[in-house]
Amino acid sequence: MRQAKPYSKEESGQKMEKTMKGLSEAFAGESMANRKYLAYAEQADKEGYPAVAKLFRTVAEAETIHAHAHFKAMGEVRSTAENLQAALDGETYEFTEMYPAFIGYAKEEGQKTALRSFTLANEAEKVHGGLFKKALDSMKKGEDTVFYLCPVCGYVEEGGAPDACPICKAKKEVFVTVQ
Questions:
Q1: pLDDT of residue 104
Q2: 3-state SS assignment for residue 164
Q3: What percent of the chain has pLDDT over 90?
Q4: Topology of domain 79-142, CATH
């Protein structure tokens, strides 16, 4: 039996490059499938199809399992401090570069629904970044807190729900907590 020739550094690097590209694409695809299926489940519930909604939610959870496995295989889950810094960096990119560009495109093209969606998300991302920064700065204190989420725009408030969302004006009663 012939022994397999070991990869040279160039070959193994090329192979790893393709593998990492595959993992990245698989992570993105599985993540998007999860979000799409949850949106589909919400619609199925509204239309009175609870069994279909349950199927969408179950498969969405399966897609999350796949996405987490791919993300871990990429080496992207690190220490909590490193994860907080990565989250802060990601949120900062979103509200300083990504969403401002998208907002500009939507204005340019007169797309009001997209403009509202991008604007609300951009404002919420600023808050998310601040929360990650605060958590990174104070994580050694071991403090626990409750976070309140606006399900309309994604705004997050620490400690208690505001009377009205400062971004979209949703009422206090719609805020939810996430465990």
A1: 98
A2: strand
A3: 83
A4: Ferritin (1.20.1260)
pTM metric for this prediction: 0.80
pLDDT digits (tens, 9 = 90+) for 119-148: 999 999 999 999 999 998 888 777 778 899
Beta bridge partner(s), residue 156: 149
Q: Are 60 and 76 in contact (CB under 8 A)?
A: no
144-179 CATH choice from 1.10.150.390, 2.20.28.10, 3.40.1350.10, 3.40.50.2300: 2.20.28.10
Say if residues 95 and 118 touch (Cβ distance below 8 Å): no
Cβ(62)–Cβ(80) under 8 Å?
no
Which CATH fold topology does 9-77 show? Answer: Ferritin (1.20.1260)
Q: Which long-range contacts (CB under 8 A, 24 or more apart) does 58-61 make?
A: 59/33, 60/33, 60/34, 60/35, 61/34
Q: Which of 169, 102, 155 is nearest to 125 (CA)?
A: 155
Q: Where are the domains of the chain?
A: 9-77, 79-142, 144-179
Q: Which residue has the tokens 């989420």?
A: 149
Asked whether the domain spanning 144-179 has the same topology as the one spanning 9-77, the reply is no
- What is the rounded CA–CA span in Å between residue 40 and residue 56? 7
